[in-house]
Structures are given as structure tokens and as C-alpha cells.
Amino acid sequence: MRFRKQMIIAASIVALGAVAGIGGYAYYVNHSTGALELKAEEAAAPAANTEEKTAEKSRTSKEPKKEETVYVKAAPDGTVKDIVVSDILRNAASADTITDQSDLKKIKNIKGKESFKKSDNGELIWNAGGNDIYYQGESTSRLPVEVKISYYLDGQKMEPKKMAGKSGQVKIRFDYVNHETQTITVSGEERTISTPFIVVTGMFLDEEKFTDVEMENGRVISDGSRVMAGGLVIPGLSESIALSEVEDMEDLDLPEYLEVSAYTTDFELPLTMTAVTADFSEEFDLDDLDKYDELKDDMQELKDASTELVDGTHELVDGVVELKDGSIELYDGAVELDDGAKELKDGAEKLDDGADELKDGLEDLKEALKTYNAGLDTLLSSMSNADGNGNDISVVAGQLAAGVDQVVDQVLKTTLDSVNQQVEPLRTVLGPLGISIPEFESVNQFTEYDFSKILQAVQQAVSQLPPEQAAALGAQAGELAGAIEKLKEAQGTLAATQTQLLTLQEGMHQLSAGLGQVYGGVKNKLKPGAQEILDGSRKLCNGSEELKEGTYELLEGTGELKDGTVELLDGTVELKDGVQELYDGSIELRDGAEEFDRDGIQKLYDLVCTDFQKVIDRARAVADAGEAYQTFTKLAPNMKGSVKFLIETEEIK
After folding, report:
1. Banded model confidence at residue 515, pLDDT cuts 50, 70, 90
2. How far apart are CA 280 and CA 611, in angstroms?
3. I want to staple 202 with a disulfide (CB 3.0 to 4.6 A). Which of 230, 283, 398, 603 is the partner?
4. Nearest CA-CA partner of 88 in 107, 66, 105
5. The Cα angle at residue 310 between residues 305 and 312, in degrees rounded to 5
6. Could you give the CA distance from residue 361 to residue 490 in angstroms, rounded to a whole number?
7. Whole-angstrom Cα distance, residue 75 to residue 411?
8. Residues 6+ positions from 556 with CB-CB distance below 8 Å
9. How far is CA 568 from CA 203, 241, 329, 469, 559, in A?
10. What is the mean pLDDT of the chain?
11. How far apart are CA 642 and CA 619, in angstroms?
């Protein structure tokens, strides 16, 4: 698309340049005689600036130059009728003579009085006297570009003369045939190219007789009374540079015809004028073709940058894959943490329930000890009221000993059951961490158990958890440590209570074995011991109250932990979904970058650096062919030339 625009812009520039160049000539058509002539007395005025600049350029170069204008009078269909050639020999060195070559007939000087003579080899030797030479002659040679004009009325082709005065839908088509070709080798290939003649055709139509004027491959301009239709073509250029052989340029259209359409009420065509030139050097800056190497360097940089972009998108995808895997692991860990928090909360609830049961059991124990202490008071009272033989004492002592055995066994069993119930929730809580607490089958086993190892095991298990779980469980470690400390205090209290109960039990047995010492033992040992047991039970009850408060705090903490893990789980779900979107986007970006590189940059690189290189080479060859075409007639070996053609068709009226 960009190349198409550049061609259109170039064509517009060429059209303006060609028309401007033609306007500098003072030659005209004498309609009374039908001949193309130049008024010598008027030639200098309109062309003064052009001639002065051209002469100055020639004098600077010190090389003679031949400026040639070919005037062609043609029939309305483009058939050539007369050719008159006007030549200007620029005397750059102000030489006395100028040697020229020409195949013209009826040569005459049209501006000065300088004469020439013809040498044996056909050269024209002008006696210039330091002046430029203006001469004119006739030619019958074939024009390098043939103009064919076709006329249509209401879709039917018609002879030009028969069009006069007709009304209807009109079409005038201009076709151009380039006869100037040559075979050259370009990019290692032998090709036939056409000399690049720039052809500009124009006409005027009376707006009183023509409406709805349109032009294909050209432009239409109105001044209010007349419509000027004109356009530009370069016949043979499309085939010469062979754009159809370049991928993505097959459909690029370089038109080689012009077509005017209009509605007429009275057909009349004064004339058509066509200007032809091969002088590309004045219309195009051919040095711009040398900038193609810079374009290739830029394309290489663009190709390298595109490759780096593709590599970068692959690295991005790899990084996002790692992030995606990490988010999945985080999500799985959050699920496990949420499950663990739920189990911890359930265990804390059971521990709190066990603390309630332990508290109630210790209250029952305290009441039983009060009853037992009251029984000792009754025993002492009974013993003090017995006869001297102590018969009532032995009976009471035997009964009391049996009662003590039963009470001791029951108290220890009840206490041990309560302890196991209290510890059971801890087993549930610590089980997922791989930490176990045995089932206590005796008071000694409980009082001798080292609960410090539990705290150490918890700390070690927490240190091995993922950071998120470790942080969540670490916040509850304090409550767990407090609960274990309460159990350790209960160990000491229960150990002391067991010792006192065993002492009581032993005392009762001694009472039954030695009645003589019963009263003193009861009064001096059992009574104080029972009081100490009662005091110990009160402490144990107070400790169970503190344990209850600790388990309640632990329960509240595990509830907060559970709420936190739910929020964490929701956050990891959002994170996982976000990372998935990022992954999908990175895949799309990678695929897009690969497609852009493959179908865009790489193809453009191949086009510019491979296919277009051939186009540039052919364009240079075409430009060289245009520069080499310097005369329609002949040119002396030491002379440079330039040539323009003006083709005027006869009127249709």
C-alpha cells in the first residue's frame, strides 16, 4: 500500500514537472497553415529564464548540449500526420563551430543567420560564431510512443469524424504503445525493459456541451466554462519492473491508459495534447534509490528486534508457568491449612468440654472429701465415747478401713478418667502434627509423664510447616503452651493428692492392725491428713478453673484462626484465577508475537531484502534506459541531449 502511494505521488510530481517543462517552449501550431512553427522574434521572451538557466548550466559544464522538441500533428485517432523537430544547440564553450548530427529533412535556422555545411560523413558543421543555434526540420521516423485514441457513443465504437454534433454518453480512451525496448541483464537475469517515457495527456471540454465529466486514471478540473481532463501514464513501466513477480504486489496497478467519460449534447473536441519525455533525471531524484541500503539495514534491525520480542514472550510464558505452579501449591497449602484449622477448632471445643467435665469431677471430689472429713470427726467422737476395751473402736475402725479403700480407689479412678478425658482433645489437636499422648492407665503414669516433650515436638512440627501454615499455628502456640502448663500443675497437685490418699489408706490399715494406736493415729495423722487432702482438692478445683479459662481462650483463638484460613483460602482462589488469566494472556501474547514475526516482519524482511532488491535493480536499469534516451534524431559523440515530444490531434467539429 505504501509503495502504491509513493508511485501516485511520484506520478503527480512527474506530471507537474512535465507540464512545466513543456510550458517553457515558444513553439506553436499555425492553424492557418497547419504547420508547427517558431516565431523567431518571440522566442526569446517566453523562454528567456529557461534558456538563461540552461545556457548557464551548459557553460558551467563546458560541454555542448542538444535540446530537442518533437512537435507531432496527428489525426483525432492518434495517427501521425506531420512531425516537426526543433533543436537548440547550446554552445557551452562559445565555440566558432558546432558539430552536430541529424537525420532531419528541410533543416533551417529559425532564430539567427548562422549557416551550416554537411560533411562527407553526414555531420552538420554550424558556423556558430560563439552563439547557440536554433534550427528546425521535418522527420518521418516512427515515434517511440504511439498514441491510440478510441471514441464511443452510447457504448458503441465510432469513427472520430462521425462523432461531431452527436449527443449521448461519450467515452474517449487513450492507449499507449512503447516501441522503445532493449534487452539487458538485471540481477543475473536477462530481461526486456521499455524506455520509461512519461506521458501526460490533456484536453478541454466546453461545459455548455459536456456534463458529468469523469476521468479514469486522471483528474478533472473546471474553471466554470471549460473542463480540463488530464492524466499521466508510463507505458511499459509495470512490465519492466515486474511488480507482479513480487509477493503481495501482484495486484498493484500501474495503469497504462486514460479514459474520459461524459454526457454530451453536441459533441465537439478542439484538440488533445500529449507530452512525452524520457528525462527521469529532472523528474526523479534517482539518488534516493541509494537509500535502499539504509532501508535494508533498518529492516535487519527490525527483524532482530522482532526475534528478541518473540524470545522475550517465551521467557515470559516460562515465568508465568512457574508462577502458576506456585499459586497452585499455595492454594493446596491453604486448603490443608483450612482443614487443619477446622480440626484444631474441633479439638479445642472438645478440650473445652473436657475441662468442664474435669472441673465438675473435682467439685464432686471436694464434696466427697468434706464428707470423709466429717466421718473422721464422727470417728474421733465415737472413739472418745467408747469403753476402755475399745470394742466400738475396732468395729468402727474395720468399717472405716474398708470405706477408705473404696474411697481411695474410686477417687483415683475418677480423677484418672477425668484426666484422660481432658487429654483426649489434645490428642485430637496434636495428632495431625504427628504428636501422640498415651492413654494414662494409672495416676503414676500421668504424674510421671513429661509434657515438656509435647511443647518441643509442637515447635519442631511448626518449623517444618509452610510459612503460611506456620504463621497461622504459631499464633496459637501460646494458648497451647498455657494449657500444657496447667496440666503440669495438675500433675503436681494430683501426685500430692495421691500420696496423701495412699497415706490415708495405709493409716487405716495400720488402724485395723493395731487398735491400740488407732485413736492416736486417727487424731494425730488421719485427721490432719484428711484436712490436707481437702485443702489439696480445693487447690485442684482452683487449677481446673484456670484450665477452663485457658481452654476457652484457646477455643476463641482457634475460631479466629479458622476465620483467617477461610479468608486466606478465598484470597488464594482469587490469586490462582488471576494467575490463570495472566497465563492465558501470556500465551496469547506469545502466539501473537510469533504470528507478527512470521507473517509480518519475516515476510516484510524477505520482501525488502530479497524480492524488492530485484525491483530496485530493475528500477535502476529502467532509469538508466531513460537517461540514455537523449535524442529522437541523432547526437554527436561529444554532445549530450534531451528530448520532449508534443503530440496534438486535429479537432473534431
Report:
1. low
2. 24
3. 230
4. 66
5. 90
6. 13
7. 141
8. none
9. 84, 70, 13, 10, 14
10. 79
11. 20
Q: Which of the four pLDDT bands, split at 50, 70 and 90, describes residue 303? A: low
Are 203 and 271 within 8 A, CB to CB? yes
- The residues that bridge with 105 in the sheet, in sequence order, are 138
Rounded Cα gap, residues 38 and 27, in angstroms = 5
CA separation, residue 218 to residues 203, 313, 644 (Å): 12, 49, 21
- Tell me the mean pLDDT in the region 325-346: 76
Coil, strand or helix: which one is 416? helix
Q: Which three cell numbers stand for residue 135?
A: 534550427
Q: Report which secondary-structure segment, H or E, holds 81.
A: strand 80-90
Q: What three-state secondary structure class fits 307?
A: helix
Query: Could you give phi then psi for residue 234, rounded to 5 degrees?
Result: -130, 85
| Distance of alpha carbon 90 from alpha carbon 54, whole angstroms | 8
pLDDT tier at 45 (50, 70, 90 boundaries)? Answer: very low
Contacts of 528 (CB under 8 A, 6+ apart): none
282: left (phi over 0), alpha (psi -120 to 50) or beta: alpha
**AA letter at 44:** A
List, for residues 534-556, the tens digit of each pLDDT value.
777 777 777 777 776 777 777 77
266: its cell numbers: 453536441
SS (H, E, C) 190-233: EEEEECCCEEEEEEEEECCCEEEEEEECEEEEECCCEEEEEEEE
Q: Considering only CA atoms, which of 12, 624, 614, 616 is closest in space to residue 280?
A: 624
3-state secondary structure (DSSP) of residue 333: helix
- Which residues are CB-contacts of 475 (< 8 A; sequence separation ≥ 6)? 557, 561
- Residue closest to 173 by CA, chosen among 144, 197, 153: 153
Torsion of CA 132, 138, 139, 140, to 10 degrees: 180
Q: What is the model's pLDDT at position 221?
A: 95
Distance CA 188, CA 192 (A): 13
Q: Do the Cβ atoms of 51 and 25 come closer than 8 Å? A: no
pLDDT tens by residue, 469-481:
777 666 667 777 7
Residue partners of 109: CB distance under 8 A and separation at least 6: 115, 133, 134, 135
Angle at 564 between CA 560 and CA 570, to 5 degrees: 150
SS3 128: coil
Q: How many CB atoms lie within 10 A of CB 290?
A: 11
The predicted structure's pLDDT at residue 33: 39
Cα angle, residue 292 at apex, residues 287 and 295 outer, rounded to 5°: 135
> Kind and range of the H or E element at 568?
helix 527-595
pLDDT (mean) for 351-363: 74
Confidence of residue 304 (pLDDT cuts 50, 70, 90): confident
How do residues 85-101 score in pLDDT, each as one tens digit? 999 999 999 999 999 99
257's grid cell: 491508459
Q: Are 530 and 369 in contact (CB under 8 A)?
A: yes
Bridge pairing between strands 640-649 and 65-74: parallel
pLDDT for position 36: 41
Angle at which helices 452-463 and 467-474 pack, to 10 degrees? 150
Distance from first CA to last CA of the chain, Å, rounded?
44
Which residues lie across from 157 on neighbouring strands?
A: 152
Question: How far, in Å, CA of 605 to CA of 225, rounded?
Answer: 52
Q: Where are the alpha helices (DSSP H) in 464-526?
A: 467-474, 477-513, 518-521
